[in-house]
Specification:
- The chain is an alpha/beta fold.
- Helix content is 32%, strand content 15%.
- A 7-stranded parallel β-sheet has the order 1-10-9-6-2-3-5. The protein has a 3-stranded antiparallel β-sheet with strand order 4-8-7.
- Strand 9, helix 7 and strand 10 form a beta-alpha-beta unit.
- The longest helix is centred in the first third of the chain and has 18 residues.
- The chain starts with a strand and ends in an 8-residue tail after the last helix.
- The mean pLDDT is 97.
Length: 260
């Protein structure tokens, strides 16, 4: 696991660098797309590079991490709608090349199984963008999730619903109680995980993810088991890391030819 501590703007550049290098090497790459606040600056940077430098997503494909259950197809907080606004409509990534779990399916377990098959049929995810919740969830794998879990239905914790209420005009009761989410086992099959976390409210979750024991109480800690994880955090999110000085020195001493 590589930990980089830098200002938010620099974190977005580093994440975008990883995506750009991947697309240069493999234009038909499969991207894992997260929603929420953490990746917004990354998507802004990718959109800028598309507009100003010609970065192309035309042959790429994308898979969403999760989706709320029951939100109407035209709801502004439906994650398929959110990713369309935040990234897809701002670059040349074809809308039909992006898939998400079907939170409106009549048979939700079948929809979860179909989503797993779709990811596998695409050859798996090459680079997965991630965030982490204040309670340590990755995707919507809440505390107590199986570390080997697959795409499935999950009940959102009260904490997550309160955190996400800001997207629903502050009304926690408007936040759905259930979601479909890629499991931790599914996430771990992506070839490169790039996690972005900013703000002091994420500090405990970042500490547990990077330095804590691997435990279902902090689901993000399972990322310690992955061979290629890049954790991008600002000073506030890094404020509880015991080895913060070491991470800073390691990054400062990294050879110029070595990339994240």
């Amino acid at each position: 696991m590589e930990v980089v501590i830098a200002p938010v703007a620099r974190l977005a550049q580093l994440a975008a660098d990883a995506v750009e290098r991947l697309l240069a090497a493999r234009p038909d790459a499969v991207l894992g797309l997260a929603t929420g606040s953490s990746p917004l600056a990354v998507y802004d940077e990718l959109a800028r590079r598309h507009a100003e430098q010609g970065l192309s997503f035309a042959r790429a494909r994308g898979f969403l991490l999760d989706e709320y259950v029951g939100l109407p197809a035209d709801h502004p907080q439906r994650y398929r709608t959110v990713i369309e606004a935040e990234l897809v409509s701002r670059v040349d990534l074809p809308s039909e090349a992006v898939q998400g779990p079907d939170g409106l399916a009549a048979d939700l377990p079948a929809a979860c199984a179909a989503y797993e098959r779709a990811i596998a049929d695409a050859g798996g995810v090459d680079l997965q963008v991630l965030g982490v919740g204040t309670d340590g969830h990755v995707a919507f794998n809440e505390p107590g999730s199986s570390l080997a879990s697959r795409t499935r239905i999950k009940t959102l914790t009260r904490q997550t619903r309160e955190d996400n209420a800001r997207f629903f005009d502050g009304d926690v009761e408007a936040v759905p109680t259930h979601c479909l989410t890629q499991g931790l086992g599914t996430v771990l099959e992506a070839r490169h995980l790039v996690l972005v976390a900013t703000g002091r409210h994420k500090a405990q979750a970042v500490h547990q993810l990077v330095e804590g024991p691997v435990t279902a109480l902090w689901p993000g800690s399972v990322l310690q088991m992955h061979p290629h994880v890049t954790v991008l955090v600002d000073d506030a999110a890094a404020s509880r890391l015991q080895l913060a000085d070491h991470y800073r020195q390691t990054w400062a001493d990294k050879p110029s030819w070595q990339t994240i």
